[in-house]
## 1
Amino acid sequence: MEEYINEIRKILQLPKIEDCQNVLCVQPHPDDGDISSGATIAKLTSLGKKVTYLFVTDGSAGINGKSRSKTAKIRKNEEINAAKMLGVRDLIWLDHPDAGEYSVSNLKSEIIEVVRKLKPDLIMTVDPFLPYEFHPDHISTGIATAQAALFYNNSIVKAVDKDYDPYALRAIAFFFTAFPNQFVCVDDQWETKFQAIFEHKSQINPETFKLYRKYFDIKGKFYGEKIGCKYAEGFKVLIPEMFHAFAENLWI
């Protein structure tokens, strides 16, 4: 089995995350990208890569006792500050209701519009197939983003503007994944990740922050050992051709 999968890996030639120049990070909520991949994001921007954040929801269900409008404003401001710490200046908000009702099909179309405009060579997003993941925003975002990656050049799925020039998306890197196949060394940006996470004060109290710190330190060291560094973040990297009738995705 291992030899079989290794042969398939050779022909796929999955790109390295650090080699990508233009990255679109699609997130269900403000904070998801910072918590899951903040050190990698900071590393990419420090290397001169272009990173854009795209938020599916407004985060308005994240503070008990406050109205949706006030909550959304607080969380957006927190995210702007956190993103700056990671070197991200471009933030796009689709403003769907946090934990609310919206169509995966419509969301796919919205993401396709952004992809066609920005033409990223790498898309980062949440893994919708994380075992025991029940948050509908995470599941919907991951599925809609993967579908967008599959159909972004297809004029049948969504009409293409006459000025659109089709291009080749290189890969998707799924974060919050249980099946990582690529690890990014983030020794130099590890502390920056936690500085960004701490900006989300409406979501993470001091006790929760301590828990996050311990959890991610353990996880980061475990992943780091795999590639010979102190800390690493893990991702499931796939190419769009693998998003339809490809039986080996779990093992790649």
## 2
Amino acid sequence: MGRAFPLVAILGLGALTGCQLQRPHRPKVVNSYLAEPEDLASVRRIMVLPFAAEAGVLVDRNRVRDAFVTELQKLRRFEVVPLADEAREDDQLNASLAHGRLSTDAIVALCERYALDGLLVGSITSWRAYTPPHLGLRTQLLSVHSGACVWAVDAIYDTADRSTISDLQHYVTHTQRDDGNLHGWEMTMLSPAKFTAYVAHRCVGTWVEG
């Protein structure tokens, strides 16, 4: 019995130490859909329309859209066609999207004018700029050729949630250069622009063709 106590104590200490070890940071699972390869092949020239914001959501919609455009261009998969600042063709489309049904006439008009293969439309479902930041998005890419949605993402990134914090740390570790900033990954939480770019990167990252 005299020899058993130290062994038990050591085992107990080992278990306690193991519980205290930090789990590795990992990507967060994002709700997304990607069509079959044959439906994706013809979607090359696209336009990202100005994002809509759901009722009560106050956010810089242009910042969110620009972040998506930047990430889409990094894929080197699409030719992203800009929408002129004075253009108003997207108004009817966003209005119909807000009512849960896309306007076919609006889609056809846009695609004929700009010779597009697809349109990416998005809605900002939630936003909180102050700590802890929070951004919810719902996006879909519509194919002009099939008339169907070929890519959709529905995601909420809330840094009050542990899974988002782990994902954010993984993102900074694997995609950002170490600039010597003492705040490290927390700097992304302090900057609305950086946080928006992070969420856009994760959403666009769901486009993975087999």
